[in-house]
Amino acid sequence: MNETIMNELKQVVDPELGISVVDLGLIREIAVADDGVTNITMTLTSPGCPIGPQLMAAVKHFAEKAEGVKEANVKLVFSPPWNPDRDATQHGKFQLSMLM
Fold this sequence. Notes:
By secondary structure, the chain is an alpha+beta fold. It has a single domain, classed as GMP Synthetase, Chain A, domain 3 (2-Layer Sandwich). The chain has helices spanning 2-9, 21-24, 52-63, 84-87, 90-99; strands at residues 13-14, 19-20, 27-32, 37-42, 71-76. The protein has a three-stranded mixed beta sheet. Strands 1-2 form a two-stranded antiparallel ribbon. Strand 1 and strand 2 form a beta hairpin. The longest helix has 12 residues, at 52-63.
């Protein structure tokens, strides 16, 4: 189920970087209950990110499109802080290196 949700979440792109929240490593945890209620813990590239609310809304929207997800709740955390070397996928790291 988590893989299905992650595939949907790849459609959520950080508009400032042009990279999906999945490849950036912003999705920290996905927990799906038997009743289809899904709790997603995510972070942002920085605590003051002005598009945080839009990203959270998009994560909720696309998670709820995944088969078996009845409702998605998104929680924002900043500990530990986002670190692209640790959190980003290989594809995300490659995309970030192209921006530098």
